[in-house]
Amino acid sequence: MTKRCLGCGICCETMIIPDYGYNPETIKLRDNYIKTVEYDDKTYYIMRSKCKYLIGTKCKRYDRRPQECKTFPKGCEGLWAVINPACGMIQDD
Ligand code: SF4
Ligand code: SF4
């Protein structure tokens, strides 16, 4: 299957926080907490954090978006596949 961004905008409103020994109960109380995932023997907290350039599901500065946005999820495909398995960019070729 060809990788193809579906334009859902979920990656633009998601923050991934590696667990550096935080109190999980404190994290879970935060308004923007979504879920906790385990990947490669590590824990990650998934939080909602909407990019200021995201309007609806569209990037307001798409032509000038940062390099990491252009190549996303390169470098974190495995983790992102656990977080958002519906992302069209992590499907197998
Ligand atoms: S890269 Fe994935 S999560 Fe981000 S907008 Fe495209 S389909 Fe959605
Ligand atoms: S700059 Fe654009 S592509 Fe990058 S996170 Fe923000 S809305 Fe998404």
* Portion in helices: 10-25%
Number of structural domains: 1
Shape: globular
Mean pLDDT: 95
- Tell how many strands the DSSP assignment holds: 5
Strand order of the largest sheet: 1-3-2
Largest sheet: 3 strands, antiparallel
* Cα gyration radius (Å): 14 Å
Small molecules bound: iron/sulfur cluster
What is the CA-CA span between the terminal residues? 5 Å
Q: Structural class per helix/strand content?
A: alpha+beta
How many helical stretches? 3
Q: What is the N-to-C order of secondary-structure elements (H for helix, E for strand)?
A: EHEEEEHH
Fraction of residues in β-strands: 15-25%
Name the poorly predicted regions: none
What does this structure look like?
- It is a single chain.
- By secondary structure, the protein is α+β, with helices and mostly antiparallel strands.
- The chain has helices spanning 24-28, 67-71, 77-83, and strands at residues 14-18, 33-39, 42-48, 54-55, 58-59.
- It binds iron/sulfur cluster (2 copies).
- One iron/sulfur cluster (SF4) binds at residues 5-11, 72, 84, 87-89.
- One iron/sulfur cluster (SF4) is lined by residues 5-11, 72, 84, 87-89.
